[in-house]
Every structure is written in C-alpha cells, then in structure tokens.
Amino acid sequence: MDQDPIVKRIIELMDKNGMKPSQFAKEINFNQSNLSKILRGERSVPANLIEAILTHTSTTREWLLGLNDVTEQSQAEKGTLVSTNKHGVSYWRVGDKLMARVPLMKFNAYGSNPDEWGDITADRDDVDTIMVEVDRVSRGKYVVFSVDNDSMDDGTRKSFEAGDKIFTRELERQDWSPRLHFETWPYWVVAFGNCIRLKQIIGQDDRGNITLHSLNPSPEFTDFTLQLDEVSHLYNVIRKIPKTVDYGN
Predict the structure, then answer these.
(1) Are 107 and 228 members of one domain?
(2) What integer pLDDT is reported at residue 69 of this predicted model?
(3) Which of 14, 63, 154, 183 is the most core-located residue (most Cβ within 10 A)?
(4) Domain for residue 59, yes or no?
(5) What pLDDT, in 10s, does the model give residues 90-135?
(6) Phi/psi of residue 116, each to 5°?
(7) What is the domain extent for residue 166?
(8) What is the DSSP letter of 4?
C-alpha cells in the first residue's frame, strides 16, 4: 500500500525533533489514538491535523502538503483544505466547488518507450498535479492521464484525441474478480509488462482473459487479448477533463 506523502512528512518531522507519536500528539494538541491510526494508514489525514501541525510547529503549509507546483499551489491556496486520503489525493473547497488535487501522468499509447510504466510511476518529487472538480471526498486512488495517441479516436464525441486528459480511478486487484464491470465502465487504462494502454474492454472469458479494443477503425489498431495475470494495474476512465463526457453507464 502506498504511504500518504503527507504522513511521510509528518513522520519526518517527528524524527527530526526526536519525538514519538505520543509526544508529538501532545505537542500539537491532537488526539493520540487518532494520530496513530493516521500514521498506520487506517485513516485519511484530516484538515484539523494539518492545522494543528501548522499552528504548533514552524512547519510551512507548502512543505507539509508538498505544494511544489506553482500553478497548483496557487489554486489550492485560494481554497480551504478539506482532507487528504491515504493515497495523497487532497480535497479542497474552492468557492462552491469541491476540487481534488491528483497526479498528472503522461503515456504513449503506441508503446515506443521501452519502459512506459516505469517512467510514469517512478517515485519522483517532480510529478505534475492537476485540480479536478469532484462530487465528494473519496478514499480512492485517482490519477489523470494525458493521452498521446489517436488509437482511441474515431471522431465521435465519446472518443479520445491526442492531448485529452482523462480522470481515472485505480481498481485494486482484490476487486478484479470475479469479473470486471466493463459494461458499466467501458474504457480503461491498462498496464501490462512495460506497456500502458488506453483501451475499451469488450469481453472477458471464464479464464480471466480480457479483450481490448481500439475505437479508431484503422487496421493498425487491432483487438487483442490479455490474461489478467499479465496486468499489473487497471484504471477505469471516469471522464475527460474538463467534464464533457462521463463514461460510467
């Protein structure tokens, strides 16, 4: 399980000051039991913990929240932090809108890069982020991908053009069985081997094989089948950004 980057910074702050969780909780006037659960990843980081740390320590908001991207930082600072989940997705109230700050990844659907998946998932401090309007705070792992290919472009409103940004949610492996809900969520970002593809899942057999389809009718984009055992990550496509088309039925 990925550790919340804010939790990592809280632990770093405690280590720097030679404090145990119980001592740190007392220092910032925060419930010790709740702090322990947050540090173990059993609870999301709430806004009142952020404010307690900022009030009782010399830590800056920018460092604690990892707001290194100037554009996203300025957007977030105009709003009020609501909470941050265990995957590091932070939620902000900006005016009358609820916004989520999520990673922005790029991939090449042709597979020309020898290790596309390694490139986009590398643990780097310079990963771009983007603010996305959402309906509610969620515990899920959300990622925005930037499309760099026309294999899913058939010229219709629901297709995906190069340069489109898509808001996705990762489906954890324990939720892959007994069957993927591809009738409800037809479009997926699929990572397998060193490749990552945006495709439509059009079938799944009893052995777990899934059939991936490209919307572009060009002969170079033929359907192909994968065993789920070959797949490392699955993200269902929720919508394009800005919100123009919802893909859940």
Answers:
(1) yes
(2) 44
(3) 14
(4) yes
(5) 899 888 889 998 888 765 443 334 455 555 554 444 467 888 999 9
(6) -60, -45
(7) 102-126+139-241
(8) P
- Locate all alpha helices (DSSP H) within 66-186, ordered by sequence: 70-77, 116-121
pLDDT of residue 243: 57
Q: Which of 194, 184, 185, 182 is nearest to 231 (CA)?
A: 194
Distance CA 65, CA 180 (A): 35
Residue 59 burial (CB < 10 Å; 0-12/13-18/19+)?
middle
Out of 47, 66, 85, a domain closes at 66
The contacts of residue 216 (CB under 8 Å, 6+ apart) are: 150, 151, 152, 153, 154, 159
Q: Based on the domain organization, do 36 and 109 belong to the same domain?
A: no
Residue 7 lies in a domain: yes
User: How far, in Å, CA of 145 to CA of 106, rounded?
Assistant: 6
Instruction: Show Cβ contacts of residue 37 under 8 Å, excluding neighbours closer than 6 positions.
Output: 43
- 234, 166, 247, 218 alpha-carbon torsion, rounded to 10°: -90
pTM for this structure?
A: 0.66
Distance between CA 50 and CA 83 in Å, rounded? 9
Strand ranges in the chain using DSSP code E only, listed in sequence order: 45-46, 80-84, 90-94, 97-106, 129-134, 142-146, 165-170, 187-192, 195-204, 209-213, 224-227, 231-241
Confidence band, pLDDT 50/70/90 cuts, at residue 68: low
Are 115 and 192 found together in one domain?
yes
